[in-house]
Amino acid sequence: MIPASRRCLLCSNQLRLSSVSYPLLRRRSAVPAEAPSPAVASVGNDQTVLEVPSICPVSSTKKRHVVTNVKPYEEVPGPKGLPFIGSLLDYMGNGPYSMEKMHLATIDRFRQYGPVYKETLAGITHLHIIEPDDVKELLRHEGPNPRRITLDPMVAYRKLRNRNIGMSNLQGDEWRRLRQPFNHLLFKPDQLNTYLPKTEKCAEDFCQLVKNIRTPDGEVPDFIRQIQRWTLETLGSVVLDSRIGCMDQNLSPQAERVITSAIHFFNGLGDLIYGLPLYKIGIYNETWKKFVAAQDFFFEFMLSYVHDTINSMSREFRAPSDSQPLVREANFLETLLVTHSNVGPEMISDLLNDLLLGAIDTTSSTFSFIIYNLAKNPECQEKVYEEISRVLSPDEPVTPEVLQMLPYLKACVKESARLFPTIDGTSRILDKNITLSGYNIPANSIIRIHAVAGMMSEYVPEPEKFQPERWLRAADRSILANPYLTITFGVGFRGCLGKRFAEQQIHTGLVKLLQNFRFEWHREDISLDFKITSRPSSPMQPKVFDRS
């Protein structure tokens, strides 16, 4: 724990926390005002009149006047299944679905049962919603400390090691207390801008790695693994203020273990969540052992950086008082240590684990699908390249102002995320009843918010086509701009913590790659597989050619 006298470190050597002010989190509305909202007038104890603006492009754009009786939860439709296991057999063996294609099953269920359905899997019942108005209504009632389901394998591991269960699994005031300082570090534009030079340098090194390892015919072996290496290196450079070595062509043993451990963590987490939870009864199979080993390694790896930073801060604090005062910007980890000065190094290590491991797979998956879509649609790729060339020459640095002048690039990113959502959705648990699509949903129900609306023709015209222009045309923007239709980074107070930084890394990475390379796709089309996050269904092997 950092001594109280060292918390601000403002003595002869001054360590300035880049514009940190308290409270660190300014309360903002979780519900943007521009989203459509139903006007509600109560008619009776069990009847409500709803005046709902329709956002569906295939339905009328006029308001629908609906008189509906609020139905009990027991009448919510859904697959019946068997006692306890529910409809689990639908996703196994000869069933019509699979866990890897859960998003297709979800779309099927919504079309069969309507905008709200419930389903039981292995004894746990989830209520599933997709209508933007329902999502908005849910978030309006989530409160300042939203609850969601926990990642049980992570909780089990942390308890096994007698450590905090982690920010992604905490609830209530404790979650909010740990999250607030991160909001300053990862959402404030001025702070994010300080990371851009490091982000750009890692992107440049990624370009060099691609040049070094591609085959004579232009293919990059296991391209998604190379993206994971770049993501890890960028995160390490910003969060730890240190280069890990993942961009080296010949990886060091430690860098190789960092990459392998990250992969084992995500593969294990998905298998443990969607498989039989034998670890809960003390049966530890090979998947569990690899999962534990990966987390053990990352904990010790992060802890070494935490101790090194504490020692460095201590040396600056003990510098002679007559020496030249040093004023500099605090880096990410130093700021985190000061703002979390009431917790020990082990807790800081766990927080860093939550941040890095939560970002690696999501950013890598999102970026790989963007490259795939641009390679499949060369006319779109060239438009992005031309847009970049108009605002930035190859020898100029990427600046925040440059990133603001790339609307078509950002439209391509959004369109790729619509076609290939990074997550299948998120969840909430309310402490009070709520009415969704005319059904009374009791308190403590697990409500699943899905990210597949953008893949459905009921919400987006020609959803199977990659059309970035739809994000720029006024007619389409009125549909797509609804913040509850496509939820790439989650929604509400518990939305993705690293959203802004992930966008910075993705946009900067695209600028540097497209300045250097042209991507082509000569293999079969790929589709989407889901575990915890989405991933390509087959190897990512684009051909990469120099532009000059």
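That was protein one. Protein two is written in the same sequence-then-structure order:
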Amino acid sequence: MTRIKYTFDDGTTETLPLTDVVVNLQRQYAAMAASSDAGLRAKGSAKLLQLAEMLVKKESTNQTNRKNASKGRPAAKCPLKAKIIQAMASYRADDASFKDFMAAWEVGTIDGLRLLPIDSTKPIKLQDEYLIDNENGDNDSLKPYKLSTLKNKLWPEAKIHR
């Protein structure tokens, strides 16, 4: 149970359950809303509405969290990324450089993955971005990857997967 601690000017403290505090606020706001003073009645009604909206939002958040918790962890977002890392890992195991890996990939397929240029007017060596084609016919074919992503993110990650 969540508790709230009050510290008073004289140094004394009082700890109350948060539910008691909320119930007391509801009573206070209801008394304000039932007042004969129109201004106090409007403020009390507005506070009751504000408190109700906070409770609804909190319950909605709790339901969403419960629903998401029951789903379990998602699978890998991109199986193509895992295949690229696996292909790179086989080259890293032979102590090849990234440049050697890319040179081999430019002329042929590696583990069923083909490197295609995005801009056909430039030579493949001068590309900043490539299309990776999974020739094994999976549904994740033809995804774009930047050279910097291949070199700076996936290539170092392939060292871990040796």
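The mean pLDDT is 84. Keep this in mind for the problem set.
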